[in-house]
Amino acid sequence: MLNIIIFGKPGSGKGTQASLIKDKYDLIHISTGDVFRKNTSLGTDLGKEAKKFMSKGELVPDKITIGMLEAEIKSFHPCNGFIFDGFPRTILQAESLDKLLTNNNLSVDLVVALEVDNKTLVERLINRGKTSGRTDDQSEEKINKRLEEYENKTKPLINFYKNQEKFISINGFGDLNEVTNRLISIIDSTIS
Ligand code: ADP
Fold first, then answer.
1. Which of the four pLDDT bands, split at 50, 70 and 90, describes residue 48?
2. Separation of 192 CA from ligand 1 center, angstroms?
3. Is there a smaller number of Cβ atoms within 10 Å at the N or the C end of the chain?
């Protein structure tokens, strides 16, 4: 199995790149944001709860997020591996993922971060908000809150995965296909 985490700030292109490479490696793409949004549109209890936080640009509490992720993994396992997009976003989430995978004799193989400067991120998100219908992309205040959450809660994961010698960062700026090619070459050199 191959388990990859696509890491980066909101708007860095995690979801786009994960969708582009999942078939090449026959991996299941799990986007926690997408699962939350699906639940919100279905009006489930999970969706209603998650919406309270997402609509403010805040992270959904760990307990809810970790429970949901575990259920997602179980529903697809056995498979060739996963691309995690938007998870983990806190140290507790990363520790929970390690435990869950270890219990199944699995592990995170690689964490690839997409590096994009904040000015470009805000532009991308505002643009996305014009067509995506995502209310968290439509206000600069909510975008800034998401970037603040990243700094406070998600950034510490860089050292967490550097200590495990799994962290690699690539330039996420530029042509979509160029970024995909950078990503593919990192993955190929990891699995070869
Ligand atoms: P983006 O990365 O562009 O912000 P996502 O779809 O990944 O978009 O996430 C949207 C929102 O969903 C986040 O702002 C947060 O409220 C919630 N969310 C997604 N993943 C997580 C997570 N792992 N932990 C907590 N909240 C999350």
1. very high
2. 32
3. C
